[in-house]
Amino acid sequence: MKIKILENTVSLEELKKVLTKHYSNKYTVQMKGKYVVSVAKTKIIGANIIPLKDAIVIKGGFPSLHIQLIFSLLFIGLGILVPLILYWFLLHKKMKKMESEVASFIKKEYSNSILNTQL
Fold first, then answer.
1. pTM as predicted
2. Which residues have C-beta within 8 Å of that of residue 113, sequence separation ≥ 6?
3. Domain residue spans of the chain
């Protein structure tokens, strides 16, 4: 999900602080690389947030690089079909739910910085 914002209104550090404050009791918030904040519900279910200059991109996904690597190795070891079916039936809905939950919080928190693109 991509949320359009005014240019340079949200910084990575500020976003991480806000998410940590809001989700400290419920989820784990950590950095995933240099430019991505990860909100983890479990070790497998999470949402990755990338603040850009004019938008915030939120994607449901694996919260750690280790789990992402293991899932990639499953593709190599088991072929494409089996891991894809497992992902689709076991993880996809939970990741999308996490993505929408984080997106609704960010929209509420940064409501004055969001551009209204609907006419």
1. 0.84
2. 5, 6, 9, 10
3. 2-109
